[in-house]
Design a protein that fits this description.
This protein is mainly beta. Strands 1-2-4-5-6-3 form a six-stranded antiparallel sheet, covered by helices on one side. The model has no long low-confidence stretch (mean pLDDT about 95). The protein contains two helices and six strands.
Length: about 160
């Protein structure tokens, strides 16, 4: 049985973009093929919620090989998108003042549906632990109102300093 939605996905207005891809680049360090978010549409500090989406495109790097003739967004990329969503919350709300939130782990992840090119993967995250050293977010993904995955993403504060210095 899937968990109750953190927010009703039908109540979210994805047309009201708070952060577009260029603005996301100011808070998240991923580039090129690893940019897994298209936009952020809600940041609610009072309720510790963030909502964004990924528009799944037909020309993404994984489409040709996962799976030939029937492309499915890999679960690992759904989890990466969820982790980027959580990191965006932490940097945008100034919990993290330097660096970014790195992917520290996952718990209780379940995949419940397919995500294919042409879909919009709506991501809803709710912080359950916010600390400058570790964050934990419950995250859910929806396509056309149906929950396609859920899990808990653990983040750790990362410095952007050169490791050689």
């Amino acid at each position: 049985m899937p968990p109750a939605p953190l927010l009703d996905p039908e109540s979210i207005d994805t047309a009201k973009v708070l952060l577009d891809r260029d603005q996301l680049r100011q808070v998240n360090p991923q580039r090129f093929e690893m940019e897994q978010l298209s936009a952020i549409v809600l940041i609610d500090e009072e309720n510790k919620l963030i909502v964004g989406y990924k528009d799944v495109l037909a020309d993404e790097f994984w489409v040709r090989g996962h799976m030939p003739g029937y492309p499915l967004l890999p679960g690992v990329l759904m989890c990466e998108a969820a982790a980027q969503l959580a990191s965006c919350y932490c940097v945008s709300t100034h919990l993290i003042k330097e660096g970014f939130v790195g992917f520290g782990g996952m718990e209780d992840v379940r995949f419940r549906g397919q995500v294919r090119p042409g879909d919009r993967l709506l991501l809803i995250g709710k912080a359950t632990r916010l600390h400058r050293r570790q964050t934990i977010f419950d995250v859910q993904g929806f396509v056309a109102g149906n929950m396609v995955f859920h899990g808990r993403m653990i983040g750790v504060n990362m410095s952007q300093q050169d490791p050689a210095s």
